[in-house]
Design a protein that fits this description.
By secondary structure, this protein is α+β, with helices and mostly antiparallel strands. The protein has one domain. Helices cover about 15% and strands about 35% of the residues. It has one helix and five strands. A three-stranded antiparallel sheet has the order 2-1-5, with no helix packed on it. Strands 3-4 form a two-stranded antiparallel ribbon. β1 and β2 form a beta hairpin. The longest helix is centred in the middle third of the chain and has 13 residues. The protein is globular, with a radius of gyration of 16 Å. The termini are far apart.
């Protein structure tokens, strides 16, 4: 699953792949509801990523693969 997190006061977007969408949502909810200072999670490459909670502008979870495609057909 692809996760995009917008960083407040910048034009930066952190984009990572995670294996477990349900676990990611739990971590996001915990960061906000338990007032954790940093949202920590591990991406598919086993990198640990931390983003300060008060700097998160938005979170976008993309669960389905990108369905957009470009195709060419034979004219005639």
């Amino acid at each position: 699953m692809k996760v995009r997190i917008g960083v407040a006061d910048t034009d930066r977007v952190v984009e990572v792949e995670v294996d477990d969408p349900a676990e990611m949502r739990r971590k996001i909810d915990a960061a906000f509801f338990a007032s954790e200072a940093i949202l920590w999670f591990e991406d598919t490459r086993k990198r640990l990523v931390g983003i300060p909670r008060d700097k998160i502008a938005f979170i976008e979870l993309e669960q389905e693969p990108d369905a957009r495609s470009v195709g060419f057909t034979k004219a005639g």
